[in-house]
Design brief:
This protein is α/β, with parallel strands linked by helices. The protein has a single domain, classed as NAD(P)-binding Rossmann-like Domain (Rossmann fold). Helices cover 56% and strands 12% of the residues. It contains 10 helices and 7 strands. Strand 4, helix 5 and strand 5 form a beta-alpha-beta unit. Helix 4 runs parallel beside helix 5. The longest helix is centred in the N-terminal third of the chain and has 43 residues. The termini are far apart. The structure holds NADP nicotinamide-adenine-dinucleotide phosphate (NAP) and 2-acetamido-2-deoxy-beta-D-glucopyranose. The site of NADP nicotinamide-adenine-dinucleotide phosphate has 28 residues, from helix 2 and strand 5.
Amino acid sequence: MDKIAYFVQKSNTNATAVAIFGAIGAVVVAAKALSFLKVLVDVFLRSGINVKKYDAGNGGWAVITGASDGIGKEFAFQLASKKLNIVLVSRTESKLKVLAEELEQKYNIETKVHAMDFAKGDDKDYQALQALVAPINVTVLVNNVGTNHEIPTPFEQETDKIVKDIVEININAAMKVTKIIVPHMVARKKGLIINLGSFAGLVPTPYLSVYSGSKAFLSSWSQAIGAELAPKGITVQNVNTYFVVSAMSKIRRATMLIPMPKPYVRSVLGQIGISGGASTPYTSTPFYSHAIANWLIDNTFGRAFWVKQNYNIQVDIRKRALRKREREAAAAAKSQ
Ligand SMILES: NC(=O)c1ccc[n+]([C@@H]2O[C@H](COP(=O)([O-])OP(=O)(O)OC[C@H]3O[C@@H](n4cnc5c(N)ncnc54)[C@H](OP(=O)(O)O)[C@@H]3O)[C@@H](O)[C@H]2O)c1
Ligand SMILES: *[C@@H]1O[C@H](CO)[C@@H](O)[C@H](O)[C@H]1NC(C)=O
């Protein structure tokens, strides 16, 4: 009799445990499903702050660094099409002048160009930029300029020059240019700062360690100044970018996961102030397939898994890059 009582009691306890864990499980699953649904709603249905708000057609200017190619050039076209005047900054003055001319003719806006090499970190170049923008009202800043390791390389083998350039261009340039532009925005209680972040800043990327760290810096710094500047009417958005077709990515063909700059930048400018696939504040992952990838990274496996995944990918890319270098060296030797 005692045995039966014991059995009944035990199975009751089991049933209660199953019910409790079942309920917790259901809540967890529901929460995950909801957060995934929110990503889809963000990227497919919502539209963010209209960039016209930043005095477009009304004397507002956008400053774009690394503006002569790739993603930066596309920002120049799309912001000009919204009637923002544009300040173009990159190394090559000739490229900037041709682009400026095209933007003025096509969109009937004003432009200014400023040629500087951010790798030099020369105060005089920054002072000249400050003087150039002093007479105008800058309402939008796109901290786009960036550089990467030439090929995936173990940290201890990377050249001092590449390490220094990445820090100077990806980190210091963003801070210094922002410091010049923010007073413009504070004065008008209005502004938008877009920083070009990367998935390499989200998941540490072995063999691209300095690039990865520079983008993690951008992520953290963007969130911190995002909170500082929000009460002043300034929106800061770190844009979590996965591969985009460009000279830097060395990818020439678009796929579902790798858009051309045009649709990519359209997704960024269409979702100002909206997080898309990103789970940190003042951050967005606006392109739909990137947003879904970002959600999967945040919600499946652990970070260790994704770091290992990145390690495997970069080891493979490095192998292929070294083979390509060998082939090119052999071809060069032959043609001599
Ligand atoms: N493409 C991707 O897959 C990808 C992925 C994640 C994040 N991002 C980020 O997106 C941003 C733009 O990348 P992208 O792919 O568009 O690059 P890109 O096509 O290589 O263009 C880089 C631009 O920056 C300028 N630039 C390069 N070095 C410079 C320097 N030292 N000083 C001044 N200007 C310089 C280049 O013009 P000049 O050569 O004339 O100076 C060019 O206009 C970067 O911050 C990158 O980290 C890109
Ligand atoms: C800049 O904006 C202010 C208003 O915030 C305006 O009074 C001034 O005329 C503008 N300057 C230029 C050069 O457009």
